[in-house]
Amino acid sequence: MVDGAELIINGRHIFPGVRRLGEGPFVPLQQAVPRLGGRVAFSDRGPRLIGLGGELPLEGEIIRDGDLDYVPLLLVAKFFRAGCYWDQSSNTWVLGQENPLLRGKSILLDPGHGGQDRGFEGRHSLEEQLNMDLARRLQRLIELGGGFTLLTRLEGEGPSTQERIETARCFQPFLLVSLHHNSSFDPQDQGTEVLHNGRWQSLRLARCIHGELVGELATYDRGVKEVNHGLLRELPVPAAWVELVFLSNPGDEALARQPSFRQRAAAAIYRGILAALS
Ligand SMILES: [Zn+2]
Fold this sequence. Notes:
Blueprint: E1 4-9, E2 12-13, E3 18-21, E4 24-28, H1 29-35, E5 39-41, E6 48-51, E7 54-57, E8 63-65, E9 68-72, H2 73-79, E10 83-87, E11 92-96, E12 106-111, H3 127-144, E13 148-151, H4 161-171, E14 175-182, E15 192-196, H5 200-217, E16 221-226, H6 230-234, E17 239-246, H7 250-256, H8 259-277
Helix pairs in contact: 3-8, 5-8
The structure holds zinc ion.
């Protein structure tokens, strides 16, 4: 973070983002606080944060920059009991509070391919690595939100479809999201699609994730499709299979290689999961 960074609160980007003012990261007060379930009150006692945790005087904490009031990120995170971290690769500060929709829910994330199976090899990218990167970003968001996660593989591992199904049987997740990047012989093919197994809960999950993804990324919309694939077919839980973009398409591949694009995609998938749980 040099002068600024992007800001995600509870899975949603906040504009403008984080500024480096004085000693550390600051967030825009009026934009950030409502996203954390609070408000700002102004009175003759000075500005105060109001939230479930009570009140916090902001006297002396606010720095004005242009037209906006900024307050220290860590002060806001602590008051609203939000976990936070800075993702260096995408230069994004991520704040997240426990979400009642995720409480007690376990979510299985399946980064496609791995090990000997590298997935599609783009000109400048390897599918299995991008799938894993997306899964790790999504995992952190879900855990900030209070959900449990398990991955079907770790970095360098390449379990078979049958082994992934076994993992799902043991873990008995509430739902599963499989993460892939697409490819085609035709380099013109591009865009985002989400697959499902035809069962209505999977269709609903796929639709929720798809809607958030194409809205966030503005990639070419290939829709939601039913497929008869082993992993999706065999699982007794709602399951969606994301094909984020085409690594065989130069424009799509350039997007997929940007950490900030993958961070936005992970946030969109997170919101899609929340929408399907609501
Ligand atoms: Zn794949």
